[in-house]
Design brief:
The chain has 2 helices and no strands. By secondary structure, it is mostly helical.
Length: 65
């Protein structure tokens, strides 16, 4: 018989939200994502707003920062 777990996992670490990334000037992908992000924020769709931030931040022009 296996022993049941008697302790809880450590609580998750939650940091401050990241600053929204700046789109690279002249990059059509970044400009389109920036427009979508603005529309999402204006309509209150913060999930899509966050998704656009992730896409802009991870776009190859930006690297990993």
């Amino acid at each position: 018989m296996t022993n049941p777990r008697r302790t809880m996992d450590q609580p998750p670490r939650v940091g401050l939200p990241l600053t929204p990334p700046e789109p690279v000037a002249g990059c059509g992908v970044c400009e389109a994502l920036d427009k979508q992000r603005a529309q999402a924020q204006a309509s209150g769709d913060m999930t899509r707003f966050s998704d656009c931030n992730v896409e802009i931040r991870s776009h190859p022009t930006h690297g990993t920062s």
